[in-house]
């Protein structure tokens, strides 16, 4: 270590700071405990309704009618496991890499753990180490930092004495002795972490619609259940007789049949399963979904904010070209000098790119040279040769920023500056090579390096950020899909704009670039400015978050990609955060989607999967809400007509499984790339209400029709109820197949066979004695067959007429939504 006069803190001062809590330890916890997660998933409105209904049935002793309760365990388990995964990820969130650091205490250098650093410590920062806390530089020996994870600026930065270094930065070369100014929760990285770790529950459009349905059903379930119990008690001779004879059990089971039918329990379960399956499919393409609800969010995204480094570019620098100027006497000598200039002990990214590019052309390092390393203060480096056989190679060679070098040379170089600016405006990193011929090296060349005014510019060197090969086609895909893409970066806006033009961010139109330092702070004004801007440079982390918030005020659904800590807050704020696989741990932890192999080209796959989920779940939701609609109507009709409930809970479990649950599973997995259209719930209601009313009227008519045309005197009252419910359940099954066929259109594909298969499965199942006994189905015989066939024909006609009538007398918004969903016979837009 270099000799320094600083003694550092004494042991007593360290103990005092530890007692005050001024250590670098950061307490790690999320805003939701395990108990909170379990409570949130167990005590839901849906679970409460189903659990109460299940308990009521179990009290009666009819466990066969309580099988619907299993959905609670499955759905709750999926929810808890998903959120526990999110909690575990957040708990592990740490921007800083925990390791030992070298500090100076009592005049000696000692190793202390990350959490052992205290406020005021003298800390050594060495090449390759990540800075654990904020500090001020006391002495530096060529310290160069990579601050890209903090600022978004991809270039490395040389630090000088008195400057501040922030936690989360990484030393790429040199070393420094710094004084710690902020530790623990007060450091910059910890502040970002604390904001990123706040728990955010994403609620998808699907779940919003489902929750709305459940809330609406709450107002119907409780009063209807009470009315059903009263009605069913009357059908068995009143309360006194029901309790005395035990008929109350059947009355309760009948009431629960109406309640269970009104709750779309399978829809909640199938939504969770569909999200999980979509996540598994995406995982096979190296895309990790950390929040299942986010699978469908990209289907709704209309604004995609892209971080340049790590998304459009891979963060690497490539050597592009060597352009000889009129002052270049020997191109080979100049290229050799360029190699030697870049060949420092710890070259930066640009230097490494030059070495790799020229190395492929056969160049290697020279011996016997004198070096002046690059300095961010000077903005140039130099090497000097003397005594070489070829006189043209001797002398001093400079490499650095063109505007700095040219300003220190004698002569007029406006034409070269214009040429440099043109290259820079095209997204290139431009370096200038200059030469002072001669065999002598100034005596103070290393100790007091100066620009020789007689130097002559000999070449322009072009480097650029490496653009991902998949960037342009992926951006073209989003452009064709109507998604507005913006590039938001910490780099120079001119450079970023040029790169955006190269990948055709805006197609044939030149992207509009702007310096973020000129952005208004007012959210509404910012939103207006953003409408006309495609590229933003010099963006601070807080501004990235503000940009997302401004887009939200215009009702945009925003996705944000990134890889640095500076992107974490914006990714957290966005509707969908997307992190690259090589991103900082903090960024990956708060993102909903992680592209494991950092390939931007996976995003269309995510969009397609989201669209599949949204379009197919809309189709599936129409099935479940139809059941809710006809169950509510049948329950109301039973209350008004004072008749026994026309089917049992086990009937609705059997019919629902074959006409809704199992078919819905297959329909949910079908290919479908329909672009998302706002109004999910509106379209579902527009389809389901007419179908539900038609189905409910058909079943109620059957409950009234059948007893008047059958010879009930040959049956006991219990047998009469058994046959009535069996026949009404058969009619309900037929209506369910009709609804399934409407939802599954077009039927001239595998969907037609799907409908036929489940129709056949229902009939065959009812003919199997064990299944018939378990689900209380009776096969009609004799006159009952003809009555059932007649009623089914009447129900079919009634169903068709009801659909026709309701499709013309519904409110205007429902008719318009119906045209989108297929209520008038049109099929869902699908590729399947």
UniProtKB/TrEMBL annotation:
Task: Pinpoint the P-type ATPase A domain residues.
Answer: 101-195
Task: Name any GO cellular component annotation.
Answer: plasma membrane
Keyword tags: Membrane, Translocase, Transmembrane, Transmembrane helix
What does the record say about its membrane topology?
Answer: Multi-pass membrane protein
User: InterPro entries under this entry?
Assistant: ATPase_P-typ_cyto_dom_N, ATPase_P-typ_P_site, ATPase_P-typ_TM_dom_sf, ATPase_P-typ_transduc_dom_A_sf, ATPase_P-type_domA, HAD-like_sf, HAD_sf, P_typ_ATPase
Q: Which domain of life is it from?
A: Bacteria
What are the GO MF terms of this UniProt record?
Answer: ATP binding; ATP hydrolysis activity
Q: Which NCBIfam families does this one have?
A: ATPase_P-type
**The protein's name in its UniProt record:** Probable cation-transporting ATPase
Q: Which organism is it from?
A: Bifidobacterium animalis subsp. lactis (strain AD011)
Q: What is the lineage of its organism?
A: Bacteria, Bacillati, Actinomycetota, Actinomycetes, Bifidobacteriales
